[in-house]
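lol ok so funny story. i was supposed to be doing the assay writeup but got distracted and ended up predicting the structure for this chain instead. priorities right. anyway since i did it might as well share w the group, maybe its usefull for someone
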Amino acid sequence: MKKALIFQGGWDGHEPVLVSGRFAELLKKNNYEVRIEDNLDCLSDAEELKKLDLIVSCWTMGEIDHKYVVNLSEAVGSGVGLAGCHGGMCDSFRQNTEWQFITGGQWISHPGGDGIDYTVNICHGSSPITEGLTDFPVCSEHYYLHIDPAVEILATTRFPLVNYYHISNKPVDMPVAWTKYWGNGRVFYTSLGHHDDVFDKSPQAQVLMERGMLWAGEGKQYALDHGLTTERFINNAKMY
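and the output, tada:
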């Protein structure tokens, strides 16, 4: 069985316990052994993290010991997958720029607050993760993010929908879901998931998350099968 770690916590408004439980069940049905931790000390040992196939972040805001981020960086760089949704991954640690570099984006606003009706537009042919999925409606927070231009975009949504200072700019298609790489590791993110029931009200959102986690979790075996090492990524220059 593959092994996954889900770490949950931070702001309770994102229902980390419910979301973590949902993701754990999705992984278990796909033959994963899942451990859920409600603290960040589970990131304290890089070698233990490297034994995993997948790490799922369900932690909104707060602060993190930078050493823990370094450990996670090394683990993902070696091939361990990283996945998450909404503020549970891309609004986890606002002060840590390395975390943002790893994940590929950072939340900055949800214009109009909760309860915004919008459409998620699937980027067809972008990835096996989106195969067979169609555009779908969501009623939730409409996430505006700052994005790493290197991400591979799987789905988008159109801004603006509500009046605020950003409407002076041209309309933009904001990424909703993406993949990227960190070293040998695969990273998946979707901005959907403000509350746990979003995945019930918009079932394709759950399919997207499930497939994204599984895709990320396949990276370690791929690295092993192809003899990939981390040698070319190592650099001792001051990055942060």
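The helical segments are 16-28, 46-49, 66-78, 87-90, 97-103, 198-201, 203-217, 219-225. The mean pLDDT is 97.
back to the writeup now i swear
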